[in-house]
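Case study: O-antigen/teichoic acid export membrane protein.
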Amino acid sequence: MRGRVTGELFRTVVANTSARALAIAGLTFATILVARTGGPSAVGEYALLRMLPGLVGVLCVLGLPGALAYFLAAPRRDLPRLWPTLIAIGFGGALFGTVVWLIASPVIAHLFFPDEPALLIAAAGVTVPTQLLLTLGKTALQGLEDRRGGDVVIAAEELAFLPCYLLPLLTGFHGVTAIVIGLGLADLVVAVEAWRRVSRLLGWRRYGLSGDGLGWFGRPDRELGKQIASYGLRGQVGGLITLLNLRLDFAILGAMAGPAVLGSYAVASKYAELLRLPGTALTWVFYPRLAKLGQSEAAATARRMIRPTLIGILLAAIPVALLTSPVMRLLYGAAFGPAVAPARVLLAGMLLAGASGVASAYLYGRGTPGLNSIVLGIGLVITVVLDVLLIPAHGAMGAAIASTAAYLSTDALLIGLLLRLSAPSNARHGRPAVPITEVTS
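Here is what the predicted structure looks like once written out:
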């Protein structure tokens, strides 16, 4: 039985990793097109517009993306008035995030897009709700354990941008305008498919036709909303810190060195993140599963995955590092030659990512996302301090060194925490995955 479970888990992780690899391929082709039409500066603007609106949106929904998978896992998914509460949080956060972006757009334009009109950057606020709609649909599929649907959405999220970006280019729009239109259209197209799958999984009653409190529409439950926000905010701290650890160097480098340097660094960063795909997939697949297991079984399952993930990432890193220079120059051209050295430094920072992905899934699954957030916060401090110290003198290479130090430190701490909490004595006496009544504790 263990062999069958392990084989099924392996296939699931491979499928999810493949979906993320397809997403990276789509992002790569889109970045190549942006680079060929606008150069490194356009790539830098594309990276910022892909990151900043989504960051604003996630901050304004009380951690809902991180809480969805937990609250949609059986049996919590059938709580009365769950969906009206989720929709109220999501809609309110999307509206608030859009207003925040509009108010902050002059400052955002001055810091990150000095050559673009503030009105155009304000218009990019339309991607705050579209990215949220897509993110929530994706995490809803995760909670409902539609792994195939989740994989489709993960791949389509980046693949859809290329045709949606070509459309405004062919109709006469260029630069940031074409990027904003492409991002918004791609988000909407994929979000519609994600929510279609969610609707099919939940049944027609979820369109509001059910009168037993299980439909999509109705009066939100304030106490349930507090529980969702409590879990979500604790988890969001970790998710936000993870995002900042991955992308804060983009913002700092863009503000200090400009879009052109950022463009080369963005290419290097996305290339190095190929090694993070298996770890992210393990978190995605493991988290809902571990949440359903008893503490001892969850601990034993997580511990068994540490060694193979460490070895697997190490073996994968060798060919990826050797191919860095030819891939960069072939795909992006000679203008992106400076991206080669930072990419190799960043690859070193990904060596522990597989095992740390298992550790994050274990912490979320046992109902303690705050521990994950604390560890990630340490990495964020390292990122900020080293970015400020190294970027002014060393540019993209300084950002790469800072991020690598933060990645390795954070991943090592997460793995150590997993080993300590999952030790047989702790696992026997540890609490099980947190039920709904304990979420606010």
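For the exam, be able to explain this: The two ends are 36 Å apart (CA to CA).
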